[in-house]
Records
---
Amino acid sequence: MARTRTQVAIVGAGPAGLLLGQLLHRAGIDATILERRSAEYVLGRIRAGVLEQGTVDVLEQAGVAARLHAEGLVHEGVEIGFEGRRHRIALKSLVGKAVTVYGQTEMTRDLMEARAACGARTVYEAGDVALHDWAGSHPRVTFRHGGESHEIDCDFIAGCDGYHGVSRASVPLERRQEFSREYPFGWLGVLADVPPPWSELIYANSARGFALASLRSPTRVRCYVQCSLQDKVEQWSDARFWDEFRRRMGEEVADLVTLAPSIEKSIAPLRSYVVEPLRFGRLFLAGDAAHIVPPTGAKGLNLAVSDVYYLHEALRDHYREGTERPLDEYSPRCLRRIWKAERFSWWMTRQLHLFPGDAFALRMQRTELEYLFDSHAAQFSMAENYVGLPFDEAARA
Ligand code: FAD
Ligand code: DHB
């Protein structure tokens, strides 16, 4: 068995793991990242696309924002489509902040390049990752790589391995509490190389179900429609997708849509989930390993970033001060912000999707949206959540 040592063993090289590695590196803390998949596989996953201002600030602080600033698209507003009309929520003029459209894939690539440039250790295709003695004082992580067994001794383990990872699953059920809600539909997403005919995102509530018009760049669109959980991607030809998307977006947008061939198409279920606490002895959970939000508020990736921002501060202060206090604060500090993002994502999901067979809910949905379009206070509330609550205020005790 090959043995090595690091200060922090990070499980998972998604945005949470890679960004934590980068922030720790800049704080002079050594970390090794173990990733089950290959780097190419990780870069091939099409996921989130909207970054909060706070996320951009953290990426700047981590020294990985040069391309983001050059290529990211700053959006000062977002639109809600309802009953054939579009209503703009003027983010910037309401709350003084904007969001940046920059794909998770691009952010991941920037982080991978920064990690390679500083020579930090990342093991891709690490199999059978197992966590040991995280409840005691000598945590270890074992794994298989290149046909050999390996063991890493460490001070701490960061579980950044997503919803299906091994980290949370290593903690016995009686030591953790879970809160969840499943939604009775999924999102079918399509990526296509065509210039977006919309300049800002459009979240549309239609009688046929939800649809979202988004983008990745001046030459690439990303669009979604609410679909059945039973649907399979093969049942959705490009022609069927664009037809459904156009009907849900309303005439004005429909006329501008090009029926471009898809370069990626996938279905994702919608779920709200939080585990408490986020710290178990010397194991910390961050990102999707700790929580899931339905994608409607564009919060999943942004929450992963605020978690690891808090975690790097906790570890940095712990090494500086030599006390447990910063480590003790990690879980409550994170959870305060996580629950606010859970609330917002749940609210957006309820207002914009079709929940069949619930007439009362339908009237409430219409009333909520009419209130939003008419009320400055309601628009302010939506805007301050959509651009992202401040890291410190949201986390205030
Ligand atoms: P992940 O990105 O899941 O990274 C975890 C990493 O851990 C992965 O690379 C995985 O391979 C690795 N791993 C897992 N198990 C192990 C193991 N046993 N050993 C070693 N490594 C392991 N958010 C939005 O805001 N908008 C969207 O449109 C959107 N779409 C999404 C679509 C899908 C299909 C999914 C799954 C998520 C989507 N999200 C979206 C959410 C957003 O992408 C996530 O919140 C974000 O990726 C979280 O980052 P993470 O690093 O915590 O987890
Ligand atoms: C995208 C995804 C989201 O969940 C969202 O709310 C906004 C944009 C996207 O993939 O572009």
Note: The pocket of 3,4-dihydroxybenzoic acid (ligand 2) is lined by residues 48-50, 201, 214, 222, 295-296, 298 (CB under 6 Å).
---
Amino acid sequence: MVSYKELGLVNTREMFAKAVKGGYAIPAFNFNNMEQLQAIIQAAAETKSPVILQVSKGARNYANQTLLRYMAEGAVEYAKELGWEKPQIVLHLDHGDSFETCKSCVDMGFSSVMIDASALPYEENIALTKKVVDYAHQFDVTVEAELGVLAGVEDEVSAAESHYTKPEEVIDFATRTGCDSLAISIGTSHGAYKFTREQCTLDPKTGRLVPPPLAFDVLHEIEKKLPGFPIVLHGSSSVPQEYVDMINELGGKLPDAVGIPEEQLREASKSAVCKINIDSDSRLAMTAAIRKVFHDKPGEFDPRKYLGPARDEMKKLYMHKIINVLGSDGKA
Ligand code: G3H
Ligand code: 13P
Ligand code: ZN
């Protein structure tokens, strides 16, 4: 048993309370490899933004949970080396799918876990979430739960349709589970294809797809039911069209990739939404940058020469999200 506190990590409690009051959101960036982690820490240290490092099931399968945990421990020291005296870094399990997975993360030093039982019937979601909360809280580890189901095509997290969170359930759910934050469904979804062509309209000026707006009415009703309670948005990549175009122009194939407009995420950040999950955008930044090196310098075969530019592009993206979208800069 290792406490996250010994590793210099923090849980989400104080961070979320400040974010809800201050009208900004904390970035939750997924990481699978060293370059992503370096870019996240560099961006957070430079902007003095609290940050949540997220480890998904896919990441655990790809990189190994233990290794990722040690990388996060290293990240705290790296942040200090970059001049961030008191780094505000959370190590969070993203979409934990069982009590055992959540427990193993708590036991190895994660400071926050998500139990995603949103696909289960309501009472089963409550029972499993409460079991995780009861365990995690003994060690001051915070717990995110989910109510409502996101649409999405992402491999490990999929649901054919989106079922918006029912505002009439949130008080009962939060009270009976004791969860520290709640992920809700208001129209976001995982991956780079968040809406079909049919769901979008076409901007006549740019020819770009314009997605339907998020269900802010549902969000505001939830806020009214649970004043000040930390709300989380998954599936919040904006799928920057510059990256999509670059990838497509350089031999890739991402037809009709579309995300959540950043103005809507900015608006959500000003509300009780205090954690915004972004993964796909960093995948796009990395892929675009790597494709560019492969296109411009076909003789290049030193991975550092294409992973380096990929890291720089991700850092640029993370800084943009922190400063221009979530507003968390200067808050740590
Ligand atoms: O919520 C989904 C994340 O983007 C993680 O996806 O399991 O493919 O790493 P992954
Ligand atoms: P995106 O696929 O929109 O980046 O969402 C990531 C996410 O919600 C991770 O939990
Ligand atoms: Zn998610």
Note: The two ends are 28 Å apart (CA to CA).
